[in-house]
Every structure is written in C-alpha cells, then in structure tokens.
C-alpha cells in the first residue's frame, strides 16, 4: 500500500475533484469542472467550511468537505457534506484518515458533534463510519425543490 498525504484543497485540484465526482455519481456531470473551481474559490475564503484532499503520487485520490452549522436545538456541529474516495483507493484507510483530520478540525472549531448522511446502499461506508464511532440514528427521506 502506497502512502498518501492529507492537505487542504487548492484551486488547481478542481479538475481532479470533478473526475472523482463523476466516478462517484455520473449525474454530477451537470456541475462542470469550472463550477467546481469556482466553488473551491468560494470555500477557501469561507471560514465555516473546509475541504481536505487525500493525495498519492500527485493525484487526488479522495476528498472530504466539512461545514460548521448551528441549529436552534443543538450545540455547534460539523456536517460532512461530501466524502469521496476513488474506487481503486478504497479499503486502504483513506476515508478513515480524511474523517480523522476533519474531526480534528471540527474540535478546533469548537464543534461538539459530527453528522453525515449516507445512502442505504453504501454498506461499506457505513462500516467505516461505525468503526470510527459514528452511530446510526434514523432513516429519512430527502426532498429537493429546484429553484430558478
């Protein structure tokens, strides 16, 4: 198993993140590489969000996006907005290390908990989350309304 490093996202990562998005969910093709680049620019100046990159041999092999959020019924939390690891690099500790780094950042920000959503079919991911101490709390339906 080759070593990988974790670092903060850079604008130059946009194309490789776009490709990872495609691998994870082909429907993401509608969000272009240029739009990914613009979103990275925006997130880099937003102190409530962080995107961490897992890199091996100068290739982005995974990333995690965390966002601080406050609710009227709980302490400050971090929402794991997205965690994607390339298929060829799964089961090698990449996702676990990305989660660990995000958890460390969350603690430094004063967050009291982490929360994530995962599709019911992603059983390997569920095992990773449980191994890292996350507890399954409930099933729910997601509703989306497109706004113009």
Structural features, described:
This protein has helices at 14-24, 33-45, 94-108, 123-131, and strands spanning 5-8, 49-56, 59-71, 74-85, 113-116. By secondary structure, it is an alpha+beta fold. It has one domain (5-131): 3-Layer(aba) Sandwich (Aminopeptidase). β3 and β4 form a beta hairpin. It is globular and about 40 Å long. The mean pLDDT is 92.
Which terms would index this structure?
148 residues, 4 helices, alpha+beta, 28% strand
Structural class: alpha+beta
Strand elements, count: 5
The unreliable regions are: none
Helix share bin: 25-40%
Q: How would a textbook summarize the main sheet? A: 5 strands, mixed
SSE order in H/E notation?
EHHEEEHEH
Q: What's the total helix number?
A: 4
Strand order in the largest sheet: 1-2-3-4-5
Q: Which percent range describes the beta-strand content?
A: 25-35%
How many domains, as an integer?
1
CATH class: Alpha Beta
Q: What coarse outline follows from CA principal-axis ratios?
A: globular
The CATH superfamily is identified as Gcn5-related N-acetyltransferase (GNAT)
* Average of pLDDT: 92
From the N-terminal CA to the C-terminal CA, the straight-line distance is 47 Å
Radius of gyration: 15 Å
CATH architecture level-2 label: 3-Layer(aba) Sandwich
């Amino acid at each position: 198993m080759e070593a990988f490093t974790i670092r903060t996202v850079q604008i130059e990562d946009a194309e490789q993140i776009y490709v990872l998005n495609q691998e994870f969910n082909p429907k993401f093709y509608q969000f272009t590489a240029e739009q990914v680049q613009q979103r990275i620019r925006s997130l880099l100046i937003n102190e409530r969000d962080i995107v961490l990159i897992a890199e091996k041999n100068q290739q982005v092999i995974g990333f995690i996006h965390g966002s601080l959020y406050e609710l009227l019924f709980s302490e400050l939390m971090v929402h794991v907005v997205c965690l994607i690891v390339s298929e060829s690099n799964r089961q090698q500790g990449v996702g676990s290390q990305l989660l660990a780094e995000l958890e460390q950042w969350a603690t430094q920000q004063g967050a009291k908990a982490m929360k994530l959503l995962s599709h019911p079919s992603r059983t390997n991911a569920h095992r990773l989350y449980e191994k890292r101490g996350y507890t399954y709390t409930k099933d729910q339906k997601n509703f989306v309304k497109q706004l113009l």
